Structure formats: structure tokens, C-alpha cells
Automatic annotation (TrEMBL):
Source species of the chain: Winogradskyella thalassocola
GO biological process, one term: bioluminescence
Protein name as catalogued: Acyl-CoA reductase (LuxC)
UniProt keyword list: NADP
GO MF annotation terms: acyl-CoA dehydrogenase activity
Length: 352
């Protein structure tokens, strides 16, 4: 199977996903194999929601929409244009996926197959309904994918390289267990925002999407923000209010109530507005329904601090802070070439 076949298959998958939007699901009668898969995928979406309370319809369809937008012929070719695929020798690459947000391991899955390798997937039990179904669609629209995609719930065996995502604790296990294999091991990371106090309401409203999308469970979610010493929180609280219905979601509300009780019993200072607590804290990883903050007095010192802690940070949301910053509201809209942990997965796969 050549690169053109692989590209065309994933572009067809993107068109298939484009039918399942947040506001409406509209069947496109012109799509290849759609009669076989359309109703089945609607059922898988329903199963994913029922199985994992964090996977709401809104969160799943947001993910689906992002992938349908990414998997266009133009985007895929732009992404792959800088690589040389002629030297890649097909290998079997194992992927150990997280399950914190829907289809969180799809980029690794895509990268392995688009590079010409075989993939061996070990999914999280929290996210096991969507990807196997999409893999079947790929095999039907491009039969040469058959035999190149395998899912397992058993111990990983017979693979040449591995991409594994987990917590800091599991990463240490991964590093030991896969020490003799080419690997990408991903640990805990969080995203931060840098505020100056001069942000517009539109920017702060966009920031609220970075905070609350997926309930804050993703590594690209902002879990902490840095503020000037004399920052006034009024504008921030006003702007994020558009997300207040989130407190009606039972799993989020339970975490909010629990963490609020812990903070109150521990007599921690915090501010809260009925659906979000903000607390001054030096950590990057904040609990659900909580946003940490830290004050700064010197931008250059803050830049130095974040550079030192770069292995803990996925995204920096800011306006004019650094060369690798992300605009407010864009953390959950990565491009195909925006790699997790800034590790070029395709480059790694072409060199194994």
C-alpha cells in the first residue's frame, strides 16, 4: 500500500466523521460504504456516552468535528509534506492509549498507519467503543489496511516500537518495561495561561473554553493561570460565566462539592462562583472544578520559570508572551502537526 492510498483512506474517514456534528447528524448518501457504517457509528456514539459519564454527547461530537476538519486532503498533505516516506520499513508499533477524553489516542493511531507501519492498540477501558469501529471503516474503504490493525486487551507481544501514554507513575513502569524498544513515553502534562489584566472579554470567554472543555480532563486544558500581583478577578469571573451550566452535570458537580468541602475543612483560601474554584497554588495539575493561580511580578522571570518546567507543560495560552504560545480558546483545536509534548511522532516512526 502506497502513501496515496493511506492518505485517501483517512480523507474518506474525515468525510464520514463530518456527518456527525454537535447540532445535527445528517447522512451523506454519496459517501463510500456509508450504508454499512452510518447507523452503526450512531450506535457506538450512544454506547460511548452510556459507558463513560465524562463522554457527553457535546464532548464526543466536539472531538468528532475536530477530526473531520483535520482530515481533509489539504490538511493531511500539508502535514506530511516535510517527510520522506520512501525509506520507512514497515514495523509493528504498539500504542497504549489513555482514556481521559474521547479518541485521545487517535493521532498516534493515524501517525502509525500513515507512516506505513502496522499498529497494535491497547485501549483504555474508558474509551473502547469508537476507535475499533473507525478502524473497520478504514479497512472497508482501503482493503490493504486489513491485517495492519490489531486491538488487544492482553499483554503486548510481537511489536517493534511503542508509544505509551499514562501518568507519571505508569510512565516509570513503561520506561522500564520498554527499555529495549524504540519508544515515546508520555507523562502527565498540563496547560497554563498567562494573563496581564489587559485581556478583552472575548479573549477571557475563549479562555473559558480552554478551561472547561472535556471538564478539564485533557492535557491541553488550562489548569493554572499566572496573573499580575494586583490582578482583579471580576472580569475573569464574568467572562467564564457562560460555562455555568456545567454544574448541572452530575459527575462534575460531585467533584466540585467534594473539592470545595476539602478546601473549606483545610481552611484554604479560595474564590468560587458556584461552578469553579480558584486557588493560589504552586502546582500545575489542579483537581476537577478547580483552577490554580500564581502571581508574577516580572515577565522575564516567568518565562524562565516556564522554560525550566517545560517538561510539565503542554500548552501556554497567552498573547505576546512567547514564540510557542497558543491563542485564547485554541488549545482544544490542534492541527495535525501540533504534536503532544512537542515530540514529532511521524519523524520518530520513520526512523525506527
Amino acid at each position: 500500500m502506497d502513501l496515496e492510498q493511506r492518505i485517501n483512506a483517512f480523507v474518506k474517514l474525515g468525510a464520514f466523521l463530518n456527518q456527525f456534528q454537535e447540532n445535527e447528524v445528517v447522512k451523506n448518501e454519496t459517501l463510500e460504504a456509508n450504508d454499512l457504517f452510518f447507523d452503526g457509528f450512531k450506535h457506538q456514539l450512544k454506547l460511548a456516552q452510556e459507558y463513560n459519564g465524562w463522554f457527553t454527547k457535546q464532548n464526543i461530537t466536539f472531538t468528532i468535528s475536530n477530526w473531520s476538519n483535520a482530515l481533509t486532503d489539504k490538511n493531511v498533505r500539508q502535514w506530511l509534506s516535510k517527510y520522506n516516506f520512501n525509506t520507512a520499513k514497515p514495523q509493528t508499533v504498539a500504542i497504549i492509549m489513555a482514556g481521559n477524553i474521547p479518541l485521545v489516542g487517535f493521532h498516534d493511531f493515524l501517525s502509525v498507519l500513515i507512516s506505513g507501519h502496522n499498529v497494535l492498540v491497547k485501549q483504555s477501558s474508558n474509551d473502547k467503543h469508537l476507535l475499533p469501529f473507525l478502524a473497520k471503516y478504514l479497512e472497508v474503504v482501503e482493503p490493504d489496511f486489513k491485517g495492519k490493525i490489531k486491538f488487544t486487551e492482553e499483554k503486548l507481544e510481537n511489536f517493534d516500537a511503542v508509544i505509551a501514554t499514562g501518568s507519571d507513575n505508569t510512565a516509570r513502569y513503561f520506561e522500564y518495561y520498554f527499555k529495549n524498544k524504540p519508544s515515546i513515553i508520555r507523562k502527565n502534562r498540563n496547560s497554563v495561561a498567562i494573563l496581564t489584566g489587559n485581556e478583552t472579554k472575548k479573549e477571557l470567554e475563549a479562555l473559558s473554553d480552554d478551561i472547561f472543555r472535556y471538564y478539564g480532563l485533557g492535557c491541553r486544558n488550562v489548569s493554572k493561570f499566572f496573573i499580575p500581583k494586583d490582578y482583579n478577578f471580576d472580569a475573569f469571573f464574568n467572562a467564564v460565566y457562560k460555562w455555568h451550566p456545567i454544574i448541572n452535570e452530575s459527575k462534575y458537580a460531585n467533584n466540585y462539592d467534594y473539592n470545595k468541602a476539602v478546601y473549606l475543612m483545610s481552611e484554604f483560601d479560595m474564590l468560587e462562583n458556584g461552578f469553579l474554584m480558584i486557588k493560589e497554588d504552586g502546582s500545575y495539575a489542579s483537581p476537577i472544578a478547580t483552577l490554580f493561580y500564581e502571581r508574577y511580578t516580572d515577565i522575564s522571570e516567568l518565562q524562565e520559570k516556564l522554560a525550566t518546567d517545560s517538561d510539565k507543560i503542554q500548552c501556554i495560552v497567552a498573547n505576546g508572551f512567547s514564540n510557542n504560545e497558543i491563542a485564547f480558546g485554541e488549545t482544544q483545536n490542534p492541527q495535525l502537526w501540533d504534536y503532544a509534548d512537542n515530540v514529532d511522532t511521524v519523524d520518530f516512526l520513520l526512523k525506527i
